Amino acid sequence: MARGSASKKTALASEQERPDDARKRERWKAHQGSIDLKRLVFLDETWAKTNMAPLRGWAARGQRLIGRAPFGHWKTMTFVAALRHDGIVAPWVIDGPINGESFRTYVERVLVPELREGDIVILDNLGSHKAPAIRKAIRAAGARLFWVLCCSCALPG
């Protein structure tokens, strides 16, 4: 008889136990069935660093493994994009890490022209996502703004 691993566990956000978050989650679950999925616009960013070279690898016995990486040019590149039901929109690469100013520039110059009246923009809780200028620009485009609290709920903003 097969046994499960004793080391597996499921971690849940402790915020889920708070009564205010539980109410918001229930309200979200009650309304999510009425949302037009074609209106959802998920927005997020990711990054890569030029010094993200592997430190270890494999080579034939007795052979030295040669690794290559840019020397002394450590840089961060950030990719920001929005995802709709039918593909990626508003892609943008930032030369450096994301911050409030660069995110605002992205929203105003790249994202907003892609938004349509009635869209629902969903963001995570990164501090630069919550700036008043971000909220104002998205709402001025006729879109609504939600922040994801955890994997199963969102909070209108």
TrEMBL record:
Residues 15-24 have a biased composition (Basic and acidic residues). InterPro entries: RNaseH_sf (IPR036397), Tc1-like_DDE_dom (IPR038717). Residues 39-147 form the Tc1-like transposase DDE domain. It comes from the Bacteria. Residues 1-28 are annotated as: Disordered. PANTHER family: TRANSPOSASE. This is Transposase. It comes from Paracoccus fistulariae.
